[in-house]
Amino acid sequence: MTRGTKHFNINILNAVMSISGELLKVIMRNYPTGVTIVTTVYNNEYYGLTVNSFTSLSLDPPLVLIAIDKRLASHEAIDKSNVYAVNILPDDMRDLAVRFATAPREERFKGLRIRTARTGSPIIEGAIAYLDCKVVAKYPGGDHTIFIGEVVDAQVMSNKSPLIYYNRGGYYSIRQATPL
């Protein structure tokens, strides 16, 4: 076998092997992401959860996407209300990120100062910025749904450093990063 053929066969083997969800999580923990709290309102109740599966999609029209686990109450609320807001968290809101990731839904908004955006979704005071969205498309993504939202309202509210998630529960400030 030539060197190139051997490399080719390894690539074929890798392509047909399935990757476990656990391995994917281990790998993805090595990719730092920003931290957001996605909120919505459904049947006059607030829902929210910590999300790092968020990205911009298009500038014209302005679109963003989030991926939400189908088993969560917030998934059903977003799916039925067809609105959500993405609150981008600063590094001094680590405890809030943990609360929205772990606390019962009824506890998440207790004591928070919020206002509502154009869609009625909660905007968290102290967030760096928010994007208020109406859902324009939904796609299956395995155990998640990908919600594409058209941004109908947005604002930058501070210039604080963002909260970063990295390596299994580690929350960091971008100020801790070393410039290259």
Q: How are the elements arranged and paired?
A:
Blueprint: H1 3-16, H2 21-28, E1 33-34, E2 36-42, E3 45-51, E4 54-59, E5 62-69, H3 73-81, E6 83-88, H4 94-102, E7 114-116, E8 122-124, E9 129-141, E10 144-156, E11 163-166, E12 170-173
Antiparallel strand pairs: 1-11, 2-3, 2-6, 4-5, 5-10, 6-9, 7-8, 9-10, 11-12
Helical content (DSSP H or I, runs of 4+): 10-25%
The name of the CATH architecture is: Roll
Task: Characterize the largest beta sheet: strand count, sense, and whether it forms a barrel.
Answer: 7 strands, antiparallel
Stated plainly, the CATH topology is called Pnp Oxidase, Chain A
Q: Could you tell me how far the N terminus lies from the C terminus, measured between alpha carbons in angstroms?
A: 42 Å
Arithmetic mean of pLDDT: 89
Count of domain modules: 1
Tally of strands = 12
Sum this structure up briefly:
The protein is 22% helix and 42% strand. The chain is of the alpha+beta class. It has a single domain (21-176), classed as Electron Transport, Fmn-binding Protein, Chain A (Pnp Oxidase, Chain A, Roll), CATH 2.30.110.
Description of the molecule:
With 180 residues, the protein is an alpha+beta fold. It has a single domain (21-176), classed as Electron Transport, Fmn-binding Protein, Chain A (Pnp Oxidase, Chain A, Roll), CATH 2.30.110. The protein is built from four helices and twelve strands; from the N terminus they run H-H-E-E-E-E-E-H-E-H-E-E-E-E-E-E. Strand 2 and strand 3 form a beta hairpin.
